[in-house]
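tl;dr need the bound structure. longer version: we got a ligand (iron/sulfur cluster) that a collaborator sent over and nobodys looked at where it sits. i said id run it. heres the input, straight from their email, havent touched it
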Amino acid sequence: MTLHTGVGRVRPLAYHDRAAVDPALLDVVEYRKSGLSLNWIIGCPLDCGYCVRHLFGNFAMKVPRALTTDRAAFELLVAHRFFQPHVTPIQLLNRATDPMLPAVKPHLFTMLRMLDDAGLTNHVLIITRWRVDAADCAALNALQNLRVTLLVTYSGIDDDRIEPVDSQIAGASLRTAHAHAGRLRVVLYWRPLVPGLNDTDAHLAAAMELSRHAQATVFTGLFFRDEIRAYYRDHGLPEPYEHTARRKVFPEHLEQRVLAAAAARMPGGSPVFRKTSCAVSYAHGLPDYNGHVGIRELCDICPTAQLARCTDAATVPAAADVAVMAAGLGGALVEVADRAVIVSGLDEQRRYLMQHTLRHQVHDIAKPHHPRRHGRADLGWPTATPIPAAETATVQEVNTR
Ligand code: SF4
């Protein structure tokens, strides 16, 4: 299958085409869990059936178009009311295109240079499943200030109705990036893992082999929202779950098999994490910027040195300070606990601002996190069938360091 991934630079979105774009996509800065997300280019030819662009009615837009100039997007980010120099993690072009597409890449690098030239040391996450070559790595290594992480999305899905892009492209990109990583950090972003689709023993073993070509590996599940289910149904694709969910779906039994595969692999694989920010932070030798260490069961597979790093950096914020912060954002503090701050009346964006500022988890009282479920959907937890002992791994075995 030929994918038209574009050449040259991205043209602006025509004024008369804007009316057809979801207003949420026209908002180029959005606060997400992994940081302030800057999306000034939308449209993608890669056709992953589970793409979040379904949620914005944008899946049919195959040719990337710019919503604004690179310079204007830079100004929108650094002037954003929630942006904090050196603190706020940044994600570039992660919502509605792939930043390494040939036509998109020049804009990515222009943005990185502007941020770097401003002396900013913030984390920057670049997520791709497309091609990465040695020249790309040289450009990323040349950045002096930003903490750049390249997360290479790899699924191993071989049903090209769901994922027409061959996973071998991502595998090759990961190997190249890891071989040429200098300042750049490289993470294997193993996702989406879906029962019955890409979770055979052979799939897990292939991902574990790839984990040797990264400084860290993170695994995660599928967003299975109503809009994505509708796409699956319209195209006669096998539905992976009976129900849809707000959070990512990752059944307990599958997690146990992933951890068992990690424990059984050859020495030399990178540590495996449940959370993206944990993998990114570990790759830079820093404590997790999302403060997951309060949710201690998340850390049971973490390398000892990293656990010490996060534990040493952790502080439980003073309730009086948090109350002022929550009230200033229009909500209220409910409780400050070792695991997390609980608030009410604050949307996700404001909770993430608090979380990245406090370096402590901030949860909404209306959306409780269940112990051991790691912030995932209820589907598959607790597992309906007992997990055979042979498929479980002791935590020490998973990431022995
Ligand atoms: S110690 Fe816990 S919070 Fe820190 S990186 Fe490891 S898993 Fe994440």
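gonna send this back to them w/ a short note. Residues 384-392 have pLDDT under 50 and may be disordered.
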